[in-house]
Amino acid sequence: MSVISRLLVVCLVLALASPAAAAGFARVGTFSFTWEGIFTGGRLSTLGSSDLADRSPATLMVNPAPLSTGSGVGLSYDHADYFFDVDLNIYSGTARWDNLRLNFAMQEFVIDDALVRTAYNPEGTGETFDVRDRMTVIGLSFDLGTALFKMPSFQWAVGAAWRGYSSNFADSEADANSWDLGTTLGWRTEYQGGWTGLTGAVSWQNFTGETFAFDERESLLPRPLRTGITMETAFDRAGHPGDLFKFLLAYTRTFRLGDTYRSDADHVGLEALFLDTLALRYGRSTQVLGDIGSWGVGVVLDGRLLGPFTVEVDWGEMSYENPFITEGKTIWGTRARYSF
């Protein structure tokens, strides 16, 4: 496929990202970063992006106030094959100390480097150019629940994040900045033979309503307001550390504030975790529709084998619904953290 053809396809896919795309374009003008929210991480995407209570570093892309998991540091990398030569990547990390959590995440929408072709050099000049959109998020959150109420069973995190947008097309570059806000509350009840947990979260991306200027044209940036709830229940192994089985059900609603380009979206996810090691997941998102939704597996290696280290690997498939993608695409991620 030629460079021009590939770029045209990219533009068409982004323009058709939702059923309301054509009408929205006519009413409000162009939008940038319409791929936001399509891929939210190896674990979270297999759950249909439904679990705002996810505590992995990449969750910062959708929630600036993830709950703390104790003092330590963590890193993760997540990847999704999108279509043709387009990849979605997330690089993220977190540092936690008591009730304070510093988070970093960077997500890229990348088209493979292409040859520069001219009328005099139709086979290529030997030079290449790239097309790349990037969101960089740096956030700080604090667990007020533990700090104020001194209750280990209750967590209440509040957080804010700076979000930077940058776009590169050949020799043209542009950037913009905005702010995100979020809060997450979690309650866990222990009982003989297991425990139950309930977590609720609200996050507002780009609440300042910033816009994006590229090539002397101004476009709108996404302003999703997300509200989610996650329910968990687990059964202990008598005489053994950890859980025999844990079940998770999550739901999130994404409101596209001021956005007539894309419709509001519903996200639902299910997860079953066996022996704190093997996870089976399934999810559905009306933002990313496909024949089978998304599904995946995960493997957790924790302190029983690695001492203070925990390593998690996620793999799955996510189906898309647009004129250019008719099959599921592979998504995966890997995470590592050190607790102290």
Task: State the strand order across the main sheet.
Answer: 1-2-3-4-5-6-7-10-11-12-13-14-15-16
Separation of the first and last Cα atoms: 51 Å
Q: What proportion of the residues form beta strands (DSSP E)? A: over 45%
The tally of strands reads 16
User: What value does the Rg take, in angstroms?
Assistant: 21 Å
Largest sheet: 14 strands, antiparallel, barrel
Q: State the secondary-structure class.
A: mainly beta
Q: Report the CATH architecture.
A: Beta Barrel
CATH topology: Porin
Shape: globular
Mean pLDDT: 82
CATH superfamily: monomeric porin ompg
- How many structurally independent domains? 1
Low-confidence stretches: 1-5, 12-29
Commentary on this structure:
This protein is mainly beta. The chain has a single domain, classed as Beta Barrel (Porin), CATH 2.40.160.40. It contains 5 helices and 16 strands. The protein has helices spanning 3-15, 21-28, 42-46, 144-149, 303-306, and strands at 72-83, 86-97, 100-115, 128-143, 154-169, 172-191, 194-204, 211-214, 217-220, 224-236, 243-256, 265-274, 278-285, 294-301, 309-318, 329-339. The strands form 2 sheets. The chain has a 14-stranded antiparallel beta barrel with strand order 1-2-3-4-5-6-7-10-11-12-13-14-15-16. β13 (278-285) and β14 form a beta hairpin.
